Each structure stands twice: as structure tokens, then as C-alpha cells.
DNA sequence: TAATATTGTGTAACCGTTTACATAAATCTT
DNA sequence: AAGATTTATGTAAACGGTTACACAATATTA
């Protein structure tokens, strides 16, 4: 059904080596021969088998991508950033969701390797990093960082501090800080930075735990007002949890941002559709993905890379769950 | 760096054939030999190269997945359904976003084929279907359907009709029906079904166009109230557009659902977080993905398949952008 | 114990490419 | 016109697995 290089060679009346050479533009080939070969290629609709190529070259046109959970709207943005960038260079993505689970991460790393990927981009836990050791292919960490591996991530510390500053500057004094899972490094970092900032401000601060999911957020939000009814500021670990909190706030008839301020993290798309639209700390997800892809391609092409650790800036997106800042005269 | 079967064979003092046999549990192998081989495998941390396997077998453990846009929250659900199911059987996903563009679809189909995928799952336009002709590997359509190919999709007609019925039964009489891009079959079908139902009801109906994105929805929503200020019901082509409409409604201070009813389509996650929570028609996205994966595996294993066209039911998710139904005594 | 069946193992061909090397043809030097 | 270059092409050996086939060793049977 699918034509092989031998059939093309036969059709064109040349050897397979010649076909290979004209296909790849490598080595010599007479103009006339090129035409004959291309005609045969055309006629048989020949497309070189990537698997055979990959076997010989010991590298494919495949890039492995491991993300925690594509169902969390933060990651699709990143994935598209990666894909859109790689796609232009003919690379394809093998993709896996890890759910932040070590076994899954390892399983995907292994199978990606078995498929001769040229490189990998991964948001994996720090402990999984050792699985990247002694690989002869480049790996770039995304939304994570580490000593040895190049990485593209965002400035969680500034993000966390910023979130805290916002509530502080706008007058919250009884703040609940919702901490996400501590195993997830970036989430932990933003939490720590916010906590530090709040602590320094000598304001009343309570810490609560939540998963990064909607269900987790809802459970947390419900408890929050039972335990700390006079809260006047909430810093959520991500936008999803913030959205859950917002819903609870509304349900209880608390005025926002007058009685309570709320700030999320990520700036995922639907955040602006909430009512009131959610103030949040923006991470440039798409850009992060694209830059990771760019760095990976650089590595693949053995180019020198100026900075192997790219920390992208975050920014405060002011919407309507925080008050206007009072200007000090 | 990475051990090959030859190195394992040498280490174990046997031939490559023997190693292959014990790895695959095919043919005979003496118990003692097995032990020796497995020890060597262990020692060298040998993992068979899938590429070489794939070349010989002419099929890999890779499945191609083409989705329109992973950035639209409807699709990640589906993708996870596919992945979670396939993952158990050791299949991996090569993934591509098509943006509903014919060239991209074809490009991905071609490169997937070049990588010896065992099968493909695709949400592609009808015109791309011919590219699936004469393939020796199974393909299942997802969220789309067609004559020749097996497919898993949802009942768009019932969905469209249901959406219309809901607004009708709850008393809307000046309804705007937002039609999505007509090239996208499922979107068109739900539109047509709704239109039919509305027309029959002899109610006042206006049609507007929108893309499936937030930006498109916002533009559409703005125009909507300028052109049809006394609208009292909106059927959106999907939840994203519905969310945009909801925002416009709120901005204009129109009461919902008292003055206007709104219904979306898909039931993507954040829909319940809107304020008020959005009534919508639910498509079982995850389930659809999982079932497509199941069907594909059946096909790969050459099992008989009872129904090659699985139409999954949709349902009305009643939330707070539609009124309570008035019971007729 | 010889004949036969079963089990265990190795050799080499194959999957579809790329490329080192050999050799032939064309072109350039002097 | 002979020799040196350059260009053009083919042959065969990789790449890392799987498996048909041959053959040897062991177990079973009569």
C-alpha cells in the first residue's frame, strides 16, 4: 500500500541510494536523475518512513512532552506554545499526562526514550529529574526548574509576593492564604513568598490547604468561612481554587471587593468571565511553552545557549475582585 | 549508553534470538536461560527499542490523535479520555492540533503514518476523510462522523432540539440563536436542530454568527443587544460563547433568568463557576474519548465490533440561567 | 534402546532507511 | 591526449529488533 524507497528506485530505474540522496539533497545527483526520481516519488506518493530513518539516525522527529494534567486550563496553553513552535520545524509531539505521579512520569520518560525522541520537555517533579541523567538527548524543564537541566519557568516568588502586596496595599488585614500541594514546587514557592510578605506586614494570616482542582477548592472554600468568618482577603493557589472561593463568597452574600478581596494565580482564560472578573497573577503560559520549545531546538541543533534558565516575568492583572489602590498623597 | 539486545545477549552468553524470545515470552526458553537473560536485562537496564520493533512489525505502539484545539476546554477532557484508556494497554499518543484547518489535518495524518502509528483517532473535517481511505490501519472519528469510518460522537440533533425546547418550555418568545461556524459539522447540526424546533414553535427567532472563541463570543454578544434589544432567550453554540453572552447580559443590567434565558452547549468545567451558573447541554467529552479509544483498540485487535457508530446521549444540565419549568396542571 | 516428539538455541534474513566506499563517467588541466 | 578532479551512481553494511529455519539436546514412547 505505502510505497518504499525500493519501489521508487525501481520505478525511476535507479538505486535506492540515489533516491535517498535526491530526497535528502545530500551528495551528488544529476539534474535529469533528480527529475526522474521526483516524478517517481510523485507518482507513487512516496513518503519516507520515519521509523526506518529514526532507526538508522538514532533520532526521530519526535519530541516527548510530559505535563501534569491537560485538563487544567493552564497546561493546554503551554502545550500549544510548545506545539506551535515545534511544528514549524517538522517535529511532532508524543504526549503524556503525569498527574504529578512519579510512576507515570518515569513510565513516559522510558517509553519516549524507547521511541527515540530527539528531546523532551517536561513539567515533572524534582525527584524524577534523576531519570533524565545520562541521557544523550536534551531535556528542558517547563514550569519547573532544577540544577542540572535547562528550564523555562516563571517568577513564582515575585508572583507570590505580588499577590500578597496587592491585598496588603488595598487594605486587607485578615488574610487567608490557600496553599496548594506542597510537593508541587512552583505552587509551593508562590505560597512561601506570599506568606513571607504577609508575615512581614504583621497582618492576621491563616493558612489553609487545598488541591488544585475545583472540588478541592470548593471544599476548602466552604471550610474557610466556617473557620475564619471575618476574613477580608484570600490569596488562592490558582485560579480554579479562586473561582471556587468566589462562588462561596457570592453564595454567602459577602460583597466583593468591598468586604473581601480575592486574588488568583495563573490568569487562565475563563478568569475574565467570572463575575466579578477575577484579579489574578498572570503567568505567560503560551510563551513559556514556546520558549521551552525554542530552547529545546537550540539544544538539538547543538547551538550555544546564553541562558539555560529562563525565568519569565509574571504580572498582576487587575480586575474586580480587588479594590482600587488608594494612592498615598 | 542505552543497552541493545546484542549487549544483553553477550552479557547473558546467549544469542539475540534467545533474548528476544524471553523478552516476548514467545517460543521456547529454558527456565535457567530465562533467569540468566533477565539478570542481564536487569543489570544493563535493557529496554527494547520500540523503533526497531516498529520497523520490523510495521506497527508501533503509537496512536495518532488529531483534535481541533486543545485550548478549547471541551477537548482536553476528550484527550484525557483517550489517553487514560490507551495508556493501560501501553499505547502512546502522538498529538496534533488542527485548528480545523485542512492542511494541518493532512500534515498530521501524513506524519503519523510515517511514524507507523497503529491507529488514529481524529476530529477532522469531512473533507479530510478521503485522506483516511485505503489505510491499512484503523481510524476512528471522534466528535465527528462519516459513512465509511467508525465514529464516536454525541447526539447533536437531540442536543440542539433540547436547548430550544428548554427555552420554549420556559417561556422565551424572542430568541436569538447563535450559530457557530457552519463548516464544523457537529456545531452546524445542533444549530439546525434548534432552528427547526424554534421555527415550528412559531416563536420569534434571529440567527447570529460567532466563532467558537471567547473573542468571537464577545463581539457577537455586543452586537446582539444592539440589533435585538428585546431578546428574551439566547441559545449559544457552545459554553464559551454563552459565557461571553452572560457577561454582556450582566454588564447591561439585564436580569437573568427573569428577563432573559441563556443556554450553552458542552458543559465544560468552568460553566458551573459562572455567576449565575450556566444552564447547558452536556456532552460526555471524557466518555467519548474513552469510547473512541476502546473502539480503536478493538479494531487494532481485529475484534468484531457490534456498532461502529456510537452516538452518545446528551443531557440538559439545569442551572440558573434558565427559569424553573412551569408545570402544566 | 531405537525411533519419535518435544524443547531449547543459534544463524541469518528481514523491516526501510542512510551512508561509506568503490567505481564509472564527465570535466578540467597542462 | 593523458592525468587529475569533480560529479554521478551503485553495492552493501549498518541501525536494533523479530522470526523462519536448521539443528541439537532432552523427554517420551514403543
Keywords:
Rossmann fold; DNA-binding; 3 domains; 434 Repressor (Amino-terminal Domain); homodimer; alpha/beta; 6-stranded parallel sheet; 6-stranded mixed sheet
Topology:
2 copies of one chain form a homodimer.
Chain A: H1 5-12, H2 16-24, H3 31-44, H4 50-57, E1 62-67, H5 74-87, E2 92-97, H6 102-114, E3 119-122, E4 139-142, E5 151-154, H7 156-169, E6 174-179, H8 185-200, E7 204-209, H9 214-227, E8 233-235, H10 239-251, E9 261-266, E10 279-282, H11 285-300, E11 309-312, E12 315-317
The first copy, chain A, binds a DNA duplex (30 and 30 nucleotides) through helix 2 and helix 4.
Describe this structure in words.
Two copies of one chain form a homodimer. Chain A has 329 residues and is of the alpha/beta class. Chain A is 42% helix and 17% strand. The first copy, chain A, has eleven helices and twelve strands. The first copy, chain A, has a six-stranded parallel beta sheet, sandwiched between helices. In chain A, strand 6, helix 8 and strand 7 form a beta-alpha-beta unit. In chain A, helix 1 crosses helix 3 (31-44) and helix 5 packs parallel to helix 11 (285-300). The N and C termini of chain A lie far apart (78 Å). Chain A binds a DNA duplex (30 and 30 nucleotides) through helix 2 and helix 4.
Counted by DSSP, the helix tally of chain A is 11
Note the run of SSEs of chain A as H and E: HHHHEHEHEEEHEHEHEHEEHEE
CATH architecture of the largest domain in chain A: 3-Layer(aba) Sandwich
Kindly, what is the distance between the CA atoms of the first and last residues of chain A, rounded to a whole number of angstroms? Answer: 78 Å
What number of domains of chain A?
A: 3
Give me the CATH fold name of the largest domain in chain A.
Rossmann fold
The fraction of residues in strands of chain A falls at 15-25%
Structural class of chain A: alpha/beta
Largest sheet: spatial strand order of chain A: 2-1-3-4-5-11
Q: What is the alpha-carbon Rg of chain A in Å?
A: 26 Å
- Output the CATH class name of the largest domain in chain A: Alpha Beta
Name the CATH homologous superfamily of the largest domain in chain A.
Answer: Response regulator
Q: What characterizes the major β-sheet of chain A? A: 6 strands, parallel
Biggest interface between protein chains, with counts per chain? Answer: A-B, 54 and 54 residues
Q: Tell the overall outline of chain A.
A: elongated
- Give the oligomeric state: homodimer
Uncertain residue ranges of chain A: none
